[in-house]
Amino acid sequence: MKFVRRMTVVVLGFLGISAIAGAIPLILSPSGELMHMPLSMLQYSPFHSFLIPGIILLLANGAMGLMVLFATLQRWSGYGWWVAFQGCVITGWIAIEVFLLRSVVWPHYFYAAIGLVLIVLGIVLTRENRKA
Predict the structure, then answer these.
(1) pLDDT for the residue numbered 132
(2) Rounded-to-integer distance, Cα 80 and Cα 61, Å
(3) d(Cα 63, Cα 56) in Å, to the nearest integer?
(4) Rounded to whole angstroms, what are the CA distances from 119 to 31, 33, 49, 63, 132?
């Protein structure tokens, strides 16, 4: 159980920090210039700049990821479900991003895997806490 919680803490910490690190340049430079991403990437999406996607990334995967990390560290009741939910959020984010951009690059695979790992870890934590 300790290994599962430690792995969960590491994965959530990485997700939260990397999401914030990715969101800040999108918010500060909605044109995508800081990230070297042309606005043409958004041609099939409902967005005209990277501002709204940056805000959503910041809140859904950055802030919420760190909140779930805190819940895990504090062992809040039902925190395993929150871990699994965060895995669903990042997996959904990646699926929607791939659909809207009509492009797949290696970070999509990496973050989708992180989402799946969080879902599994959350389920394991929930089952283990039920036994305790």
Answers:
(1) 61
(2) 16
(3) 10
(4) 33, 34, 31, 18, 20
DSSP state at residue 58: I
Q: The tokens 């925190």 sit on which residue? A: 79
Q: Quick one: which of 47, 46, 19, 17 has its CA closest to 32?
A: 47
Which residue range is the domain that position 24 belongs to?
Answer: 2-131
Instruction: Give per-residue pLDDT as tens, 47-67.
Output: 999 999 999 999 999 999 999
**Single-letter residue type at 72:** T
Which parts of the chain sit beneath pLDDT 70?
132
Q: How many domains does the chain have?
A: 1
Q: Which of 74, 53, 70 is nearest to 16 (CA)?
A: 70
pLDDT value at residue 1: 74
Amino acid present at 53: P
